[in-house]
């Protein structure tokens, strides 16, 4: 498949039909869209939505001709978007980028593509780029792809959670739920995810219990339609590779048996998502039990969480569980020293910044009699994590503790480096 093939042919055909009818771009665009958008479509720089294409076809009196041209292209683009989404769901970011690039050398005017590109940027920790992509997708979805609105709103809310802006995140999660209900969209998993997130931000708000979320955990896991991790990853990768091979092959065939596997894979991924969602709720319940010093209940929830983690845990959920184990050790086990070491060990497996980990480390320093050199190691790790997350207020408090620790050991150079780092960061915010 040649890059740009999808968008160039439909743009060229609209231009040919317009010139045949002696129309200018302004005449074609009148009361439909801007002349600039018509120019971009004809140049292959924008992809018209189905609704816009219908209006253009009616204006050109060429509904049948454009339907014939776009039928194969719509199928190709739709399949490409679906494959890219599956690639991202399975962590295959490079493959997702390759598939999206086949949609044209310029980014098409399709909300789903910008949404997927936002997810790629978020995966690569390019949060500002992800934010811009999601907002572009949001603008396009409002006009042409309303079914995507809840997913996009939820993703923007997730970014605000990463930046510790819980008020905005909660607003966006509530709006996600409202839009889903207002548009009467079937968003079972998404709405349940939002309910769990809202319950963590607003402890007094309990998640709504949908028919699916009321399913007994043990029964749901037993009925899960895919093998346990890591067998599922191998199985899913094989199916995805088959679909990618069919996508890359010439001539393209939307009827290929390889593409028919995608619906099967998507259903299994949905089931996996339900387990992952249940895991979030289980971890939250286990943490609450530990904080309430209920040993028996916390052990029950942690056993269930470990089982769910093996089936469908994401890397972030693995980190959350590791921190949960550290909290358990602090409360019921061998004490804070083991908890701290277990938490520091997580940096080797999960180097990405995570707010909860930094919070644990600082709290232990403030509440427990931790001495050097462990105290300095803990505070440095927390400070770097907060700096990555741009949590300036938390950085300032942690730096005070760290400077106090460094002064006790006469580490003058380290103090100067720390102060210089704070000043550099302060100049950027």
From TrEMBL:
It comes from the Bacteria. GO terms for molecular function: DNA binding; DNA-binding transcription factor activity. It comes from Ferroacidibacillus organovorans. The keyword DNA-binding applies. InterPro entries: Cro/C1-type_HTH (IPR001387), Lambda_DNA-bd_dom_sf (IPR010982), TPR-like_helical_dom_sf (IPR011990), TransReg_Diox_bact_type (IPR050807). Coiled coil: none annotated. Residues 14-66 form the HTH cro/C1-type domain. This is HTH cro/C1-type domain-containing protein. Keywords: DNA-binding. SUPFAM superfamilies: lambda repressor-like DNA-binding domains (SSF47413), TPR-like (SSF48452). GO terms for cellular component: cytosol.
